[in-house]
């Protein structure tokens, strides 16, 4: 099982990254099949709005570090995305990746009943962490992203952990780690 | 009056950029007092959550093209931010700026009644463009950003232009240009 982990937190040992690691472990994937991308360490540009992916090419034309992330994620059986909430929304790093996944849509995505280019049968888990203790605070935003990835042919779910600070969710909220593992195993069974 | 426009659309002649130009004109600022930054053409990194801006440095420590943008914003009387809605939230280019604007908050921002470093008498207009016809669709997201800038000390307003595609709004939707000019007049009591 190929797994692509796309880490939206700039902090290398962040809570969201630790939760992703627990999720990947629970997936049972062989480490040789797991690709991890720490977005903040890469040179990445946002979507140019050029529509080349709708008029000239089947993939995004921007040649930067994100090109490999996009092709790896497009070939993965399980994609794990992570992001903390910064200023009311997912980090810029993860938004850059998500904007560029627009290239996965076909040219006629607005009217096509199957708008996405990627073959079906893949799974995606979006892990979101936040300081705000109210887990419903950003649920609508996160649900919207899950809906988007479902339109991209993924079986997609999200997992929000609220009330986090500091650095070690495995110590402060060990139950969240167990829930991340459960989220992945149930996603893989579905 | 110093005006800084931070443009979040990657498209050269986009609707949001045109609306920003209208807002600049409505402000009456002289050309030499206006600074415009086209984020997609700059080399910019997201916030890396190092907290340097809260533990010793008064400014963001990342040295990239956004440093000049933040510096210009910190000196402006009127800040104009623009972004199209891409996949449910503002473009990644503008989110990158907004995450980095966290450096404009003081170390004790959580408890200080005046948490921003820029004082209380600047103005800010956030111009959003979107394809969907309903203003309320992303209204909560935009209200949350406006609230963030208000907490920072800006007298902040937003303008959501809906139902937009690729058209030239100067000819097809002139009422949008009038509306944005009115909002600017309102902000400055002109």
Major sheet of chain A: size, sense and barrel closure?
6 strands, mixed
Whole-number radius of gyration of chain B? Answer: 16 Å
User: What fraction strand of chain B?
Assistant: 15-25%
Task: Specify the overall morphology of chain A.
Answer: globular
Radius of gyration from the alpha-carbon trace of chain A, in angstroms: 16 Å
How would you sum up this structure, described in words?
The complex is a heterodimer of chains A (190) and B (190). Chain A has helices at residues 15-27, 52-55, 66-75, 92-100, 139-151, 169-172, 174-189, and strands at 3-7, 34-38, 78-86, 89-90, 122-129, 154-161. By secondary structure, chain A is of the alpha/beta class. In chain A, strands 1, 2, 3, 4, 5 and 6 form a 6-stranded mixed sheet that branches. The model of chain A has no long low-confidence stretch (mean pLDDT 96). Chain B has 190 residues and is of the alpha/beta class. Chain B is 34% helix and 19% strand. In chain B, strands 1, 2, 3, 4, 5 and 6 form a 6-stranded mixed sheet that branches. The radius of gyration of chain B is 16 Å and the shape is globular. The interface between A and B is medium-sized, with 31 and 30 residues.
Keywords, please?
heterodimer, A: 190 residues, 7 helices, 36% helix, B: 190 residues, alpha/beta, six-stranded mixed sheet, 6 helices
In short:
The complex is a heterodimer of chains A (190) and B (190). With 190 residues, chain A is an alpha/beta fold.
What's the topology here?
The complex is a heterodimer of chains A (190) and B (190).
Chain A: E1 3-7, H1 15-27, E2 34-38, H2 52-55, H3 66-75, E3 78-86, E4 89-90, H4 92-100, E5 122-129, H5 139-151, E6 154-161, H6 169-172, H7 174-189
Parallel strand pairs in A: 1-2, 1-3, 3-5, 5-6
Antiparallel strand pairs in A: 3-4
Helix pairs in contact in A: 1-7
Chain B: E1 3-7, H1 15-27, E2 34-38, H2 65-75, E3 78-86, E4 89-90, H3 92-100, E5 122-129, H4 139-151, E6 154-161, H5 169-172, H6 174-188
Parallel strand pairs in B: 1-2, 1-3, 3-5, 5-6
Antiparallel strand pairs in B: 3-4
Helix pairs in contact in B: 1-6
């Amino acid at each position: 099982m190929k797994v692509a982990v796309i880490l939206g937190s700039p902090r290398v040992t962040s809570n969201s990254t630790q939760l992703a690691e627990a999720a990947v472990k629970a997936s049972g994937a062989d480490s040789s099949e797991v690709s991890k991308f720490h977005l903040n360490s890469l040179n990445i540009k946002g979507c140019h709005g050029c529509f080349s992916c709708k008029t000239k090419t089947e993939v995004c034309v921007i040649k930067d570090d994100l090109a490999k992330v996009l092709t790896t994620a497009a070939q993965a059986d399980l994609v794990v995305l992570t992001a903390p909430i910064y200023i009311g929304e997912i980090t810029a790093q993860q938004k850059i990746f998500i904007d560029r996944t627009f290239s996965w849509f076909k040219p006629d995505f607005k009217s096509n009943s199957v708008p996405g280019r990627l073959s079906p049968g893949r799974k995606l888990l979006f892990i979101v962490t936040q300081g705000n203790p109210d887990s419903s605070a950003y649920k609508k935003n996160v649900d919207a992203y899950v809906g988007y990835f479902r339109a991209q042919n993924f079986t997609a779910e999200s997992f929000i952990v609220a009330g986090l600070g500091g650095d070690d969710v495995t110590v402060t909220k060990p139950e969240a780690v167990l829930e991340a593992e459960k989220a992945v195993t149930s996603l893989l069974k579905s | 009056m110093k005006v800084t426009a931070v443009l979040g659309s990657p498209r050269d002649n986009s609707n949001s950029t045109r609306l920003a130009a209208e807002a600049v004109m409505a402000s009456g600022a002289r050309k030499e007092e206006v600074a415009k930054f086209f984020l997609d053409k700059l080399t910019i990194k997201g916030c890396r959550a190092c907290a340097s801006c809260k533990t010793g440095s008064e400014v963001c420590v990342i040295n990239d093209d956004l440093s000049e943008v933040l510096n210009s914003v910190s000196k402006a009387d009127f800040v104009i931010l623009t972004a199209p809605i891409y996949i449910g939230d503002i473009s990644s280019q503008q989110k990158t700026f907004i995450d980095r604007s966290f450096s404009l908050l003081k170390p004790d921002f959580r408890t200080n009644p005046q948490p921003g470093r820029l004082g209380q008498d600047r103005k800010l207009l956030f111009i959003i463009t979107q394809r969907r016809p309903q203003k309320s669709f992303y209204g909560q997201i935009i209200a949350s950003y406006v609230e963030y800038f208000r907490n920072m000390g800006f007298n902040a307003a937003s303008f959501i232009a809906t139902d937009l595609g690729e058209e030239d709004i100067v000819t097809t939707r002139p009422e949008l240009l009038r509306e944005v000019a009115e909002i600017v007049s309102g902000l400055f009591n002109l």
